[in-house]
Amino acid sequence: MRTEKPRHILIRADASALIGTGHVMRCMVLAQHLTVLGCQVHFICRNLPGNLNDYIAAHGYGITVLPDNAESVTWQDDVANIITQHAHADGVIVDHYQLGKEWESAISTHFACPLLAIDDMNRPHQSDLILDQNLWPAGNPRYLNSPGTHLIGPEYALLRPSFAALREQHLPRENQLLVCFGGSDPTGECEKFLRAVQEMPALPFTIILIAGRANLRYPQLQAIAENSDVLLYAHRDDFEQLLATSHYMIGASGSSNWERLCLNTPASVVCVADNQRDTSEHLANLGAIRYLGEAQRLNSADYYAELTWLIQHWTALPTLSPITIDGNGAIITANSFFRILTC
């Protein structure tokens, strides 16, 4: 039983319809493990369209909501907003492409505490720990000019505990195709996919399409899907169960790559953000995914072609190269950060 005072951890991350939900969602996984270790976690997020602020609060975490002025605010403004509202922190975690080395230095100096930076863009950092959960080609050194310990690779991927549990169960696969382009689908892939399905003859499998909890186009997607056989949902709490039991998936790159590979679900993958391109191409070169390309270059005809290929190969899908991901990366990362906190 823990008797010491809980360590107070601040997490700075945003979610929106434009930037997606991945930063906040993976930080919530980390927060869960830090809570088990006796930490008290508090989120700091901007009030952006399509945010997850209510979702964070509903899971029992404290949250400070910053104004919706992300385009005009400077990193200095961001720091000032935080230090005027928080008198103390034992540790800080930042997962944000708009906040970098200068922000990290100012925050860690002010609070005199360790800082964990989550990134995948090989930017300079001023942190005690860097997490980059992507798989990079051998001989491609990362963060050479950044101090601290570096956790690099999908073995550190921040997956929910249910993924590791499902991986061990080896559940039978259902006759279904799972489709999801992230939590917000900023490039409109769901509509392109639905338009492709409209042109298809009868399909030999069930399609489950998850639009994403921050997808602002969901009402329009409902109207398009109304007369189709596609099972459309804004969100499914049993997503990992669906992934573990689906025969195949079409979806976005990013953190979803590690979820699919953890559960050995083969997939056709779309790059929906510039920072996903290199990893997507590398996974394709390894034979771990079918890479469809960049979202802005795709249209409904491309999804029609992929569905046609899938129908032809449904009963005998080509074997994709496995990449072993045990799903315990969040535990490793949380323990690594906690050790720094307690030094």
From TrEMBL:
Residues annotated as the enzyme's active site: H23 (proton acceptor)
Q: Does the keyword Membrane apply?
A: no
Q: What is its EC number?
A: 3.6.1.57
UniProt-recorded name of the protein: UDP-2,4-diacetamido-2,4, 6-trideoxy-beta-L-altropyranose hydrolase
- Which NCBIfam families does this chain map to? PseG (TIGR03590)
Q: Name one GO molecular function term.
A: hydrolase activity
Binding annotation for substrate: R160, E259
* Keyword match Hydrolase: yes
Originating species: Plesiomonas shigelloides (Aeromonas shigelloides)
Provide the alphabetized UniProt keywords. Hydrolase
